[in-house]
Amino acid sequence: MELNSPADWVVFIIVVGLRFLLPLLIPIFPLPAIIVCLLLDGVDQTIFQSFTTMSLDGYQGYDKALDIYYLTVAYISTFRNWVNSYAFRTSRFLYYYRLVGVVLFELTQFRPLLLIFPNVFEYFFIWYEAVRLLWNPARLTRRAILIAAAAIWIFIKLPQEYWIHIAQLDATDVVKRLLGGTPESAWGALIADNVVLIAGFLLVVGAGCFFLYRYLRAHLPPRDHGIALRADDNTERPTDAQLALARRTWEARIFDRDLVEKIALVGLVTVVFAKILPGATATPLGIIFDVALFITANTTASHFLARRGRTVTSGIVHFLIVLTMNYGLVWLGSMLSDAATNWFNATFFVVLLSLIVTLFDRFQPVHLARFPRQPLPARG
Predict the structure, then answer these.
(1) Which ranges does the record mark as transmembrane (predicted)?
(2) What is the pLDDT of residues 146-161, one digit of tens each?
(3) Are residues 295 and 339 in the same domain?
(4) Which domain holds residue 176?
(5) Is the dihedral of CA 57, 63, 65, 68 positive or negative?
(6) Could you give the CA distance from residue 188 to residue 299 in angstroms, rounded to a whole number?
(7) pTM for this prediction
């Protein structure tokens, strides 16, 4: 990846900056933010090809890492926002199922694994948040949740994963061939030669959308509220008493299943990053060991401060503390090691993982308050 001019740098910083920052809006504006992230993921390389002279040879690795990053933020946001326990558990399974598949693929480069472990989580997340726009998702039944997950898996993701990873087809090239051209054909000429066909296709699609709208309007239940784009709109938040008890539950033990999940989450994500990013040479077992040390150190420090009544109310300050601590650990490790440190990759790792750890620590108590592991006092 080579940036050849100041203009290249400007475009690169804007696009990558957006890919870093936009996912942080997912916990607040879940549906709009994840759709924008999805769209930006689809057009970022086109933007680079259109507005820069940079080579994209090294960017694909960072692109994949940023994909994992925004999906991880989406998963962690479910701790804060989701009020349906079964939907949450389903999303957790779907997220880790895909993450394990990506890890296996990066270790083996066996492409069918991406078909066996499809990315159902992303569209399931979008489906849940689309429901939440007008209805209370707490009313969703297990049957409805399972049907939605199965439909996304079978009818959307399996064909899509096959198309992308097995057949390795390019949608643009396929459309051009259907219009009688070649991948090198100009769009203007193809459209001009197929105006009637394109108009007929759009008419059929429009009619299909109209009848689908009529069907859904007739069969869907009455909406519970107006359109809710913010996560907090029409969502019952835990009370202060519930949050306080959840934090006490969280503070009670350092070595618990939350620590195990955090190590598993960050460890698997880091393994993917390490296999994707150019120049990364760490082994998976070494990564898991290092992550376990990092996360345990972070968690121990957080619990130590919390038990003494010192909590960080600002998310930004919390992130900066975690970032400083993790960067310090990386620096210490580099001092104790004879191997050269790739500081660009190290910074990329530390920033993304510090964001993930910070969000996990801040949203986990909300989930514990909403779905307690021990009885909570009745509302006053």
Answers:
(1) 12-40, 144-166, 186-213, 263-281, 287-305, 317-337, 343-360
(2) 999 999 999 999 999 9
(3) yes
(4) 171-223
(5) negative
(6) 57
(7) 0.88
